[in-house]
Structures are given as C-alpha cells and as structure tokens.
Write a structure and sequence with these properties.
By secondary structure, this protein is of the alpha+beta class. The chain has two domains: 114 residues, Uridine Diphospho-n-acetylenolpyruvylglucosamine Reductase, domain 3 (2-Layer Sandwich); 104 residues, 2-Layer Sandwich (Enolase-like, domain 1). 33% of the residues lie in helices and 25% in strands. It contains twelve helices and 14 strands. It has a five-stranded antiparallel beta sheet with strand order 4-5-10-6-7. Strand 12 and strand 13 form a beta hairpin. Helix 10 runs antiparallel to helix 11. The longest helix has 19 residues. It is globular and about 60 Å long.
Length: 288
Amino acid sequence: MIPFELAEPASLAEAIKLLDPDDPSVRPIAGGTALMLMMKAGVFRPAKLISLRAIKQLCAIETRPDGALEIGAMTPLSVLERNPAMRAHAPVITQTLRTLSNVRVRNVATVGGHLAHADPHMDLPPVLIALGAHIAVAGPGGGRTIPVEALFAGYFETVLRRDELITAVVVPAPGTRRAAYLKCTTRATHDWPALGVAVSLDLDGTSVRAARIVISAATEKPIRLPGAEAVMSGGSDDAVLRRAGDAAGDEAETISDGQGSAAYKRQLVRVYVRRALLAALDRTGVSH
C-alpha cells in the first residue's frame, strides 16, 4: 500500500470537519474490513483516512420511547449479534448476523460501514429494508434521515455525500410483524451469496395485511418486489406463496456474475422467496 495520512478525531463534529466533499482520496474508515482489502489490491489509494473508532457516541444501542431500536453506526456486528435488546427486538437480524462471513470479520466490521460500503452481496441491507429501517446521517449542514431502501444508488454506490457520515441505524418497533432472511451460496457457506431474500409480513391472525419482499446479491442493489408483495396481500396459503414466488421471479431484474447467470438467479428467486415466506409464517420450524 502507498503511504497515507491517518486522522483520529474524538468527536463527530471533528470528523465531519475533516471530510472533504471535493477530494475523493479523503475517506472515513470504520472497521476497515472492506476498505483495507481495496487498498491492498490497489483499487483505492487514499491520501487521508479518517478513523471513526474514537467517537464513543456512535457505539450505543438504545430503545427509543416509540419502541424503535437505535444502533450506533460504529457498533461491531458481533456486538450487535450478541445484544439481548437486538435479539428481542428483531431476532431475524441476530440470526442473519450468525451467517454473515465469519466471526473474525464480525468482530471488526461495523453496522455503518457495512451499509456505506454498498456491496450488493451484503446480508443486512435487505433485512433492514424489509423491517422498514432508516439511517441517521450527519453532515456540515446538519442531520437527515434516509430509509435504508433509498440509501443505495447502484453497484457499490449510495446517495451519501462525501462530507456525510452514517451515525445510527433505527429499526422500528416490531408490532405484529414476522420476518425471515434466507440466502443461497454456491460455494462455501461463508462465501458471498448468489441470492439473499428478506421478507417481513404484517399479520392479522393468519391473514397478511402487508408484505415487504426484498432481494439482494442477484441484483445491482437490494430491491423490493412490489408485484410479489401485492400477491401476498390478504392471503397466506400455499397457492398464494407459490404465486408470490413466481411473481418475484418474473419481476426481478437479475444480473450475471461469478455466483451464477441471471437466468439461474431468477430461478433461485422463485424458489427462495417462497421458502422465506414459509419461514416468516413459521411453517418450517424457524422462529423469528
């Protein structure tokens, strides 16, 4: 790697001041699990990295008065995985984290960095979208909130400005929602998935009031499938689940890559959307 300057601000305000919206070689670094690999490969050559590790205010996990759970952006994934409040609030996130990469990566990688990297193969983004989560963002002009659904602009791209930082992820109160996440890996279990599917169902007894169905890895960014969601409205029998899976396969604009062809992934969507819906309805013995 080429030499670079490392800044270690102690506060969020100080970190924001160090960011340069006109210089792409100045970059914040959280856990660094992805960024350091890019630097070693020569894909990214920074002039300055701004470490966020010393900013303690970005590490808290708190329940809000409205029942939402707020997760500081610098929370390591392994800490979130073991957190009792997270497990009670959205067990689907705890279960997803246990299958994400390996424990060495989870010990270092952070929630905010995971989202800001915008790799479409990441596991948490589709789950957070299905749960209706949003992020809090800070910049020189103040703060704003962005639904996780609206964060990703394309392949490894977000809508964040270069002088903005993710400060927290907010997951709404669960209510009557049931959720599940499934993924298909074509090689080792810890490898990048060929497809990730997250579903969230708002239930009234056995009837589905509303559904959120999100896929990732097979597409350029995590996307919702409104056509498949509409199929689920009001029903939950096996015929409805099959129709939802078929609608998802027809609707998804999949891409070809090292994990498989677009046609192969489209078939995976048909199968895995139905399986994820079954899991969310607890017809497979999986608890959520």
